[in-house]
């Protein structure tokens, strides 16, 4: 039976949504859920919830949550029994099959590098995000995969290519896409106006993926490019994701501004709200849960601290799906992917 | 004959009955004894509880709101399970309220079951100790706790009447309860009331009843708690759990998680020696027992002992049931 650990702590203390999401997951009776955190506080919260005792256990950790910091290594060193490190160590040791955490990104990135091993051939691990995508003829999947969304701030060309390979491997398995198409997000569509590492990655990907590489994707093209995977660095990835989450609020604000007076603004807001609920469903992380960190030899899902229980539940189910489909092995094979057939023939 | 009694509800407590819809009710009514399924492990547990010599064997009673026409099939099921049942009390009728559950079902059940239990007690004054087994789908926790408080003489007169009115019990049933309560013989002790969380209601729901009432997820938890009440030795309790695992009712991980859950909820003290004896006798692997040991320092044991010092908070429970 698949065992998924869920980090029950976050910077505010006990992560009540994580406990509730894990409790919901246990009711499915198809996996064991292990909550990592302060036993007393986890138990107190669990007591008020419906859960399945046979399929739920608690792994004790320090009652003190980690706090966001510019110096993650120091914070981790000072808190060796934090729920993040306890959960990751259990994951590394094989005691659990996957780990879901809402710990701050920098801390997760540093802790993963400290505890987990990268799969062979992985130049850098990447945090993924899903974004609403333009309708594509090849798939009914409404999302595209974005990576990196928060781990690597200045990727090398090899790292960009690695992100693309991992993203394609993930999309093949989870989104069931035959030949996922990749784009490189860039401030400009002109290769001569971008950073050297990006330009080198652009050239490598064109050779490596052939027609499956759609080229540079500028912000203006983001909603038009027929991509399944978008590759970028941590800073731009975060920016894209955050803008997407705040899109409904931005539309509301713009509507209020455009209406000029309060009465018209009210009327417009009511009209917009009728439609923005659908937009929120697509853009909001609260609807779909977490996203995996790819590149390590274990399954790891990061959720946002504000995720509600339903999103945590979804993240736990995604973690179980990654386990079932042996995601680290898939990523390892994906990183060894040969050149695109046409390109390989041309080289020969 | 010993003076201990085990009083069980049938549906969702001993048998895994489903009657959320009329179709399920019809299917349940049409099942043969062989087709009836136990709540996992309950047959094994009950056999273990009555396995001792006659003089020490607790007497087994079933009290159910199932209709009287179920008697033959239920008695046949008990024979199949090799459970010596002293009596089976059934209700003469069943109404749609029972199907819908909630407060309507609570009103329906409280009067009938409480009157039945009081009559049962008056007819058996020799019984000194009773353990109750019910579930969370109706109002068993309320009924059993009312019985415990009435027989302990901690609830009577206007307070009792007000409580029964609040619970929605019909006035003629209230009069009957008051009459019967006045004629109760002393005792018995009610050390524990087990409520099977068949509907997976949050355990917190039963906190108003105090430490005597134990919300249990399964028969493993009940077996462990009965060890602490002396109805089973640690070895017999562990053997019972082993038999449940051998029968495929629980995996070792499920059994271990179930015991750890009791600890987290305050029913086991960290230094409880019976836990060590139980784990040793259960034959769990070191990896399995480590799962309990890692949480054990946090086991407070605040609810490890049964009867509540103060009158239970019936009002809080009734209000929560009414709100559902």
How much of the sequence lies in strands of chain A comes to 15-25%
Number of helices of chain A: 14
N- and C-termini, Cα separation of chain A: 47 Å
Strand order of the largest sheet of chain B: 3-2-1-4-5-6
How would you sum up this structure in a few lines?
The complex is a heterodimer of chains A (348) and B (324). By secondary structure, chain A is of the alpha/beta class.
Please give a structural write-up.
The complex is a heterodimer of chains A (348) and B (324). Chain A has helices at residues 16-27, 39-46, 72-78, 83-92, 105-115, 157-174, 196-209, 234-245, 247-259, 262-283, 285-288, 309-324, 327-335, 341-347; strands spanning 3-7, 9-10, 13-14, 32-37, 56-60, 98-101, 126-132, 143-147, 182-185, 213-217, 229-231, 291-294, 299-302. The N and C termini of chain A lie far apart (47 Å). Chain A contains 14 helices and 13 strands. By secondary structure, chain A is of the alpha/beta class. In chain B, helix 5 packs parallel to helix 6 (140-151) and helix 10 (234-246) packs parallel to helix 12. The termini of chain B are far apart. Chains A and B meet through helix 2 and strand 5 of A and helix 11 and helix 13 of B.
Features:
heterodimer, A: 348 residues, alpha/beta, 11-stranded mixed beta sheet, two-stranded antiparallel ribbon, 13 strands, 47% helix, 16% strand, B: 324 residues, 6-stranded parallel beta sheet, 6 strands, 48% helix, globular
Helices and strands in order, then pairings?
The complex is a heterodimer of chains A (348) and B (324).
Chain A: E1 3-7, E2 9-10, E3 13-14, H1 16-27, E4 32-37, H2 39-46, E5 56-60, H3 72-78, H4 83-92, E6 98-101, H5 105-115, E7 126-132, E8 143-147, H6 157-174, E9 182-185, H7 196-209, E10 213-217, E11 229-231, H8 234-245, H9 247-259, H10 262-283, H11 285-288, E12 291-294, E13 299-302, H12 309-324, H13 327-335, H14 341-347
Chain B: E1 4-8, H1 22-30, H2 42-49, E2 59-67, H3 71-80, E3 85-91, H4 96-100, H5 102-123, E4 129-135, H6 140-151, H7 157-166, H8 171-182, E5 189-196, E6 213-216, H9 219-228, H10 234-246, H11 252-264, H12 273-282, H13 286-295, H14 314-323
Parallel strand pairs in B: 1-2, 1-4, 2-3, 4-5, 5-6
Helix pairs in contact in B: 5-6, 5-8, 7-8, 9-10, 10-12, 11-13
């Amino acid at each position: 039976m698949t065992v998924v650990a869920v980090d029950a702590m976050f910077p505010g203390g006990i992560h009540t949504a994580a406990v509730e999401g894990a409790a919901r997951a246990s009711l499915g009776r198809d996996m064991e859920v292990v909550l990592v955190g302060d036993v007393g506080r986890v138990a107190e919260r669990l007591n008020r919830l419906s859960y399945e005792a046979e399929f739920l256990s608690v792994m004790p950790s320090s009652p003190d949550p980690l706090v966001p910091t510019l110096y993650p290594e120091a914070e981790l060193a000072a808190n060796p029994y934090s729920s993040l490190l306890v959960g990751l160590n259990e994951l590394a040791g094989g005691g659990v099959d996957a780990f879901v955490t809402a710990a701050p990104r920098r801390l997760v990135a540093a802790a993963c590098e400290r505890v987990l091993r990268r799969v062979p051939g992985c130049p850098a691990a990447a945090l993924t995000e899903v974004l609403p995508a333009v309708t594509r003829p090849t798939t009914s999947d409404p999302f595209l995969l974005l990576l990196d969304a928060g781990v690597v701030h200045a990727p090398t060309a090899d790292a960009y290519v690695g992100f693309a390979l991992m993203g394609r491997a993930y999309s093949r398995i989870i989104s069931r896409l035959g030949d996922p198409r990749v784009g490189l997000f860039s401030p400009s569509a002109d290769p001569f106006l971008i950073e050297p590492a990006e330009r080198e990655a652009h050239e490598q990907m064109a050779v490596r993926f052939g027609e499956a590489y759609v080229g540079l994707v500028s912000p203006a093209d983001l909603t038009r490019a027929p991509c399944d995977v978008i590759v970028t660095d941590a800073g731009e990835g975060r920016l894209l994701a955050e803008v997407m989450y705040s899109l409904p609020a931005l539309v509301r604000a713009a509507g209020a501004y455009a209406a000029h007076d309060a009465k018209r603004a009210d009327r417009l807001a009511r009209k917009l709200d009728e439609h923005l609920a659908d937009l929120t469903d697509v853009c909001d992380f609260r609807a779909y849960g977490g996203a995996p960190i790819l590149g390590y030899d274990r399954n790891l899902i990061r959720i946002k601290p504000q995720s509600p229980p339903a999103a945590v539940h979804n993240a736990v189910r995604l973690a179980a799906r990654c386990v079932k489909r042996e995601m680290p092995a898939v990523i390892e094979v994906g990183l060894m992917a040969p050149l695109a057939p046409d390109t390989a023939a041309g080289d020969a | 004959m010993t003076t201990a009694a085990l009083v069980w509800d049938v549906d969702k407590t001993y048998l895994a009955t489903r009657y959320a819809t009329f179709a399920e009710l019809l299917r349940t009514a049409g099942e043969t004894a062989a087709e009836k399924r136990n709540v996992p492990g309950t047959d094994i547990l009950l056999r273990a509880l009555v396995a001792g010599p006659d003089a020490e064997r607790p007497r087994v009673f079933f009290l159910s709101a199932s209709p009287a026409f179920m008697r033959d099939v239920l008695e046949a099921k008990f024979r199949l399970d090799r459970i010596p049942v002293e009596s089976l009390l059934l209700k003469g009728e069943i109404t749609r309220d029972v199907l819908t559950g909630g407060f309507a079902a609570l009103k329906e059940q409280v009067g009938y079951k409480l009157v039945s239990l009081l009559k049962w007690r008056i007819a058996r004054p020799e019984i000194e100790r009773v353990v109750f087994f019910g579930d969370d789908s109706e109002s068993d926790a309320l009924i059993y706790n009312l019985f415990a408080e009435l027989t302990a003489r901690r609830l009577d007169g206007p307070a009792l009447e007000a409580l029964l009115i609040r619970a929605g019990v019909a006035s003629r049933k209230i009069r009957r309860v008051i009459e019967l309560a006045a004629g109760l013989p002393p005792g018995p002790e009610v050390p524990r009331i087990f409520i099977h969380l068949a509907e997976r209601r949050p355990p917190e729901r039963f906190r108003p009843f105090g430490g005597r009432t134990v919300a249990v997820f399964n028969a493993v938890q009940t077996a462990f708690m009965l060890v602490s009440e002396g109805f089973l030795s640690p070895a017999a309790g562990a053997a019972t759990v082993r038999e449940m695992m051998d029968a495929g009712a629980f995996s070792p991980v499920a059994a271990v998680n179930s015991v750890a859950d009791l600890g987290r909820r305050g029913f086991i003290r960290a230094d409880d020696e019976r836990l060590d004896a139980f784990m040793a006798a259960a034959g769990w692997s070191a990896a399995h027992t480590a799962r309990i040991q890692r949480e054990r320092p946090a086991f407070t044991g605040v609810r490890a002992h049964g009867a509540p010092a103060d009158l239970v908070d019936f009002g809080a429970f009734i209000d929560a049931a009414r709100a559902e």
